[in-house]
Amino acid sequence: MITSYYSLPLQTNKIVKNIDIDQCSIQQSIIHFIHLITTSYLGECTFDETFGCSIWNVDFDNLTSTNRLRDIVSESLVDNITSQEKRLKRVTTEVIIRQDEFREGQNNNRVKKRVDIKIKGIIRQTNEPFSYLERFYIAPLSY
Asked: Model-level pTM?
């Protein structure tokens, strides 16, 4: 049974020099991997065209309803986390999209869509509950 995991970002210079690199728990490793899925667009990884999340496809979409955007992102996350992150079982997601207003200067206001992603599941190895929350702003994407 694997008990240690490498922390992201990988410090490849240490690997080349045969120096120990930072490690993390299984929970933190899963969090890193889910973050990698959510911040990768579909087709970005040439070795696996299905790796990533459709959040990039709706980044500048101002015409689709909020409910439809939520469904697109949620379905994409469940599909990709279920197929890519084998250390989790019974994965569920909750996606909430709301608008935040930012004040830029004295007279300028900017509105961005905030996406709150809650992911829950069970860690297969330990049967412990897993919970993760990540927030993004889209149009354009930032985190």
From this structure: 0.80
